[in-house]
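Reviewers of the previous submission asked for a worked example of the structure-prediction workflow described in the proposal, so we include one complete record here. The input consisted solely of the amino acid sequence. No template or homolog information was supplied to the procedure at any stage.
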Amino acid sequence: MKLALILEDDIVTRLSLKAAVKAKGYRVLDFESPFDLNDQVASMLSRFDIIITDNNMPKMTGVELTAFANGSGYPGKIYMQSTDSVVEKDFLEAGGTQFFSKKGPSKELMSLL
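From that input alone, the workflow returned the following structure tokens.
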């Protein structure tokens, strides 16, 4: 079974995104912030097939998370959904796969899973 990591500080968005990704056949772990990941989850980052992140989260942005994951050798795809479209360029330069404007679980994003 494929494994997805969702990082989103808005609970409603996180839970609706989680349900949509699960419906695509993924096992999903979700957290409010990258700092909520325990050491065990952080150490197995490379096992996730996809990461879906927001940008504006407590203590670490999605762009920073993307740079960290790619700098750690993360082999999967990283998608960002955010209302902050000015970070799209930074996200892609950090190694992100694709940026989506946040409007709930994006149909375009779901079509890629």
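Residues 2-108 form a domain with the Rossmann fold fold (CATH 3.40.50.2300). We consider this example representative of the routine output the project will generate in years two and three.
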